[in-house]
Amino acid sequence: MGRTAGTTGAGRTRAILAAALVTTLAGTLGTGLVTAGPAGADHATGSADTGARLHLVTLSGPGTSGQPGSDAAARERMRDRQDAVLATVGAPAPVYRWTTALDGVAVRLDPDQAGLLAADPRVTLVEADAVRPLAAVGPGTAVGPGPGGGGPARGGRGTVVGVVDSGIAPRSASFTTLPSLGREPADFVGGCAGGTDPGWAPSDCGGKVAAAQWFVEGFGRDDLRSGSSLSPRDDLGHGTQMASIAAGNAGVPVRVPGQLPTTTGGQAPDARLAVYKACWSAPDPEDDGCSTADLVTAVDRAVADGVDVLSLSVAGGTARAAVDTLERALLGAAEADVAVLAAAGNDPALPAAHDVAWVTTVGAAPGLEPVGLVRVVDGPVLRGLTAARDGLPPAPLVTGRAAAAEGAAPGRAAVCAPGSLDAAVVSGAVVVCERGAVGRVDKSGTVALADGAGMVLVNRTGRSLFADFHAVPTVHLTAADGRTLLRALRRTPEARAALVVTGRDRPSGPSAWSAAGDPAGPVLKPDVAAPASGLLGAVPATDGDPGWGVVTGTSAATAWAAGATAALRAREPGWDAVRVRSALATRALPTAGGSPSDSGAGRVDLDRAADVRLDYPQPVGGYRAWLDGDGRAPNTPSVLLGGSDRVATRTIRNTADEALYFSSEARGFSTPVQVRPLAVRLGPGESATFTVTRTGPARADDGYVVWRGGDRSRSRIPVVVAP
To answer: Taking all residues of the chain, what is their mean pLDDT, rounded to a whole number?
Structure first.
């Protein structure tokens, strides 16, 4: 019987039968959902007359990546079966076909067709297309050139990092083809697509950018913002930033007027890039995002091309009872020995995304932040963030709302919308501008055009802070500090304030905006954390724009970790993706003030990961067996004891060249947790099984299982005990 997005894990199968799906269809098709789908707006691409919408249909069984020895004939058989299944409901020709990462199609279906296909025994999943947001806190966001901004001088040679995002601006210095790249990997077969944009040519890739493709049929050409590039060229800037953070060239100088000079480089500067544009800009920026159909197609192509690492800075689905089409495509990538990394997400109200065993979900680790102060004369001193090189002496402090130009609505002046400020009021002053309505950098541009001396950007809600490259010195404050500043200004309308640049500081504890794991989920998430604040990278250069920006979010953390993964794969070419993932997790650094629910195993550290003695091997096909409900937990380097689960079993393997004794310890728990055996002796390549048992009450708790080797080596995995 066909299933909706049924997931299994920790011995539990969460299958929803097709009969239940068909019942659900009647109540949900009006919203564009066939099954519990991903976060984001419903995407009703199709005919309004027939009610047809774009749907993703996954057939049973893996794509060719999960079938060793598959060839062109196998792909042809898949296409024939796809056609046969679609013919039973009179469906039109597919918009997309997938045969590598999974066996399926994107096709326009009306409600009756979708329901019939969901009940077909040859069909595993039917899902309505939807648009997912990118996992950046905001476009162009920043807190200065933070941790890893310079990047290592070498790393990643011989590997290809696939970036599924909004495309690339290939003419940046970050992507110049250099001799350090070496020869193009012989097993990579990706190519360079053309397009209708005169600003892009296939010759824009082929060296550092080894491949570039674009997919728009899911998002819809008619839904694009005017001027969008129908090519791999980046419209949003996000994809370019992620590519440069992961694998941009090393030591590229960055000079931005009025900002701190620095250099930038990716974590795998000698790796090549394969770019798959599946994220697009809409007329309303709130509608920017990535169609699931386009994303799945991009993943399928990346796997077929032969990437070594796949970076996906896109939010996952929110349905806890569903393994959706995108996660199934990522399973196919893992089966092809691709190291798959994806963003946890930036909404702490939602659980960390991609809660499946085959994806390394990356959360945010705190980084160095460039601190700026708003010092009100005879008033409060408020701490925020700034990327400015120089501060400002005391100057008149005014709100944008109080400085509205003639004919400008006070609400537009409050957010410092273009043309809304009166230069007679603003000249020489520090202007308080509220978040919202227009881009943050656009606000400082408005202040500069009105001859303002500086800006204080205040949140209306929330605590997320950025230090963009602004047109005037700017300090960004949280909503609470913004209210304090406005109260001081109401008490003293003639108040003056100075902006002070104090240098960089590292906040304690995890980033407040990074999504934490769901204790009711099937596996522990996030898996690891990586620097996520103030990562500097290339952006598309425009008139007056220097072509650099900084970004904050788990998208940046994912790109950083993807680069580190590529560097490790290049350093240890004999390691498969599972072993690389295990090493990155078991040798991660603790995050100050964090817990496994916030940051998984901890902060990724490349050098530590390369020096490892134990790994957690995963048998070929083990992930799919777990998905299909065989009752065995995947051998992940983490443990989630949820609900009635009292015992978890894991297998370790000695990867050293000599026999070693290893002793175990449970650390950091407030309730009794037991690890057995206490010690094992393993020869090179030998394995042993151990258990983690909750012996106390089922209270929320977390800690680590630590293994110490006789050579003083250490490895650890996170454990979360859920009530």
So the answer is: 85
Instruction: Look at the pTM and tell me if it is higher than 0.85.
Output: no
Residue 424 neighbours by CB under 8 Å, 6+ apart: none
Note whether 161 and 274 are within 8 A (CB): yes
Contact 221, 230 (CB under 8 A): yes
Q: Which two tokens stand for residue 324?
A: 């959706």
In order of 576, 586, 610, 637, 707, the CA distances from 615 in angstroms are: 11, 8, 12, 8, 11
pLDDT of residue 676: 96
Ramachandran angles phi, psi of 204, nearest 5° = -70, -10
Contacts of 485 (CB under 8 A, 6+ apart): 374, 376, 380, 382, 432, 456, 458, 477
Close Cβ partners of 107 (under 8 Å, ≥ 6 residues apart): 54, 55, 57, 86, 91, 92, 93, 94, 95
DSSP 192: B
* Structure tokens, 514: 């990074």
Q: How far apart are CA 210 and CA 202, in angstroms?
A: 11
Q: 3-state DSSP call for residue 36?
A: coil
Element at 702 (helix H, strand E): strand 701-709
Considering only residues 5 and 186, tell me which one the structure prediction assigns the higher pLDDT. 186
CB atoms within 10 A of CB 189: 11
Residue 204 DSSP symbol: G
Identify the pLDDT of residue 543.
Answer: 64
For residue 368, the cross-strand partners are: none
Residue at token pair 């195993």: 601
Sign, CA dihedral 366-368-369-373, equals positive
Lowest pLDDT segment from 146-160, 299-313, 415-429, 696-710: 146-160
Residues counted in the chain: 723
